[in-house]
Amino acid sequence: MNEAKTGAKIRAEAAKIVNAVVNDGRSLDVALDSAASFIRHADAAFMRNLCFGTIRHHWQLNAWLERLLNKRLRSRDSVIHTLLCIGLFQMAFLRVPDHAAVSMTVEAARMLRQPKFASLINAVLRNFRRNKIENVEPTSDEARFNHPAWFISQLMADWPQHWQQILEANNARAPMFIRVNNARQSTSAYLNELSATEETPSETVMGIESAIRLARPLAVEELPGFADGRASVQDGAAQLAALWLGVSDGERILDACAAPGGKTGHLLELAGPSSTLTAIDSDSQRLQRVADNLKRLQFDATLVHADASNPKAWWNGEPFDRILIDAPCSASGVIRRHPDIKLLRRASDIAQFHAQQSALLNGLWPLLRPGGRMLYVTCSVFAAENDAVVDAFLTATDDAAEIRLLPNNNIRDLMQEKERGYQILPGNRDLDGFYFAQLEKAP
Fold first, then answer.
1. Can you tell me the distance from the alpha carbon of 106 to that of 15, in angstroms, rounded to the nearest whole number?
2. Is 85 known to be catalytic?
């Protein structure tokens, strides 16, 4: 297939993927996986860039398109609407020559068996550049900030001093972080090994001793020691969870909601050889990913397919010394990595997550030994999922107290201190948004 045909095919596949997210409610990761076999490995990065970028700028692109179309396309032609957004994204945000963006997007319509739209696509994309539509001031906050209105309103309420900073960070591309397995190698030694192959050196992250921020993204096959468990891909903020829980040799550890296993592996890297870990997840397929990760890291754990909030179904009655609750949440702090969250989440989801998170705290607290510690973690920035959950739990639980103690002082400037717990906002030191609250049971 020649270059022009290949370029058109990439755009056609990207249109189908984005359309599946926007109009069918599929996750971007799932939609991308379904198309992996149709695209050459060498073209996969560009297709991902088209998909991620078009979703990231969804509201802005649609506002432009409304100005360019005389009338809206019918719902059955939604893939063409999506293809037009992909064409606009290329012309506004990528270094694709206009003539190539136009011609390949037109040809993509033919590949989608919609040749009747070829002239419309050609006219819309040429008029975009001719009329300088990208310079038109947005008329709505949705188009200005590329987030749904409910999300913007909730951020304004929860973070009146930081809401715009969060929105801007959400629209940036996330860097790639790795976690060095410090049970087998120091971070500095691994960095030296990695730097030997890099033109621009990667960097360690102050206060997160296992974390390295890569100078540029790498395929896992290119990471030294990935296959044998010396390194894993994990955002630096996520690495704080295992460090914050403070596991020690000989302890019984519970990792609730463990999939895909990044924090599970990190806990075992930090715990001594006499420790035991139980990892629970309600999704059997995702639990298999935990098993795969542990196999690569050369660790063993007890894996349980169950609802962690219902311990009667799986607990043997022996208490745990440490419990990590990486609670299901809106994932509003990791939108840089998963821009489809902006389209898939609804305002009504937050109350449902709050109820699920409260059930986990209340259901798992009896499993913690007196004097034991629990760490509640989310990748959300919404108060209803974070400090509100922890405050309600502490108010109702006589033998629970919060420990206002950071794992180290070098992360103090990372943290927004809440009435309950601590928040890392998205983009601070280029990290994802995470919330942490450490609780202790009275002896």
1. 12
2. no
Would you state the structure tokens that stand for residue 175, as one six-digit string?
């860097």
- Fold (topology level) of 236-441: Rossmann fold (3.40.50)
3-state secondary structure of 218: coil
Q: Per-residue pLDDT tens for 55-102?
A: 999 999 999 999 999 999 999 999 999 999 999 999 999 999 999 999
Active-site option among 85, 257, 329, 379: 379
What's the pTM value of the predicted model, to 2 decimals?
Answer: 0.95
Distance CA 236, CA 337 (A): 13
Burial of 310 (0-12, 13-18, 19+ CB in 10 A): middle
Distances (CA, A) of 291 to 183, 229, 261, 285: 19, 13, 8, 10
Homologous superfamily of 3-140 = NusB-like (1.10.940.10)
In the block, tokens 């914050």 appear at: 244
Q: How far apart are CA 437 and CA 272, in angstroms?
A: 24
Quick: pLDDT tens for 14-63.
999 999 999 999 999 999 987 766 667 668 889 999 999 999 999 999 99
Domain 177-233 belongs to what topology?
Alpha-Beta Plaits (3.30.70)
Separation CA 280–CA 327 (nearest Å):
12
- DSSP calls for 79-122: HHHHHHHHHHHHHHHS---HHHHHHHHHHHHHHTT-GGGHHHHH
> Which contacts of 167-172 are long-range, i.e. CB under 8 A and separated by 24 or more positions?
168/427, 169/336, 169/425, 169/426, 169/427, 169/428, 169/433, 170/335, 170/336, 170/339, 170/342, 170/426, 171/56, 171/57, 171/145, 171/146, 171/336, 172/336, 172/427
Listed in sequence order, the residues at least 6 apart from 314 whose beta carbon sits closer than 8 Å to its beta carbon are: 280, 304, 306
